[in-house]
Amino acid sequence: MTKEQLAFFNELKNIQELVINISFSNSEKYESREDILKDVTYEVIYRIMELLDGYRSNSIKYSVVNTKTGETINEDIEMHDLCEEFLKCTNI
């Protein structure tokens, strides 16, 4: 594994641990398993978008490229800003 790959997967591991801790600390607010899953998946996706946008680390920022078309989908946007609008979930 390269240094860059290791850094990426370490960030994913950190996100996973953070969201698990957040969900456990907020467990009393959930009325159903669906509510838990919506919040947890939203938080994970949102934080991965932050990672891609360069907000989780000063040394990491990614371009998301469709390799079939060559189009970079995050060239002029902040992906985490659009996340809530499209997922329509309640933030933890």
Care to describe what's here?
This protein has 92 residues and is an all-alpha fold. Helix content is 58%, strand content 0%. It contains 3 helices and no strands. The chain has helices at residues 3-25, 33-53, 79-87. It is globular, with a radius of gyration of 15 Å. The model has no long low-confidence stretch (mean pLDDT 90).
Name a few traits of the molecule:
92 residues; mainly alpha; 3 helices
Radius of gyration equals: 15 Å
Strand residue content:
under 5%
> Uncertain spans, ≥5 residues at pLDDT below 50?
none
What is the helix tally? 3
**What is the N-to-C order of secondary-structure elements (H for helix, E for strand)?**
HHH
Shape: globular
Based on helices, strands and strand pairing, what is the structural class? Answer: mainly alpha
Helix coverage percent of residues? 55-70%
First-last Cα distance? 33 Å
List the helices and strands and how they pair.
Blueprint: H1 3-25, H2 33-53, H3 79-87
Give a short overview:
By secondary structure, this protein is an all-alpha fold. It contains three helices and no strands.
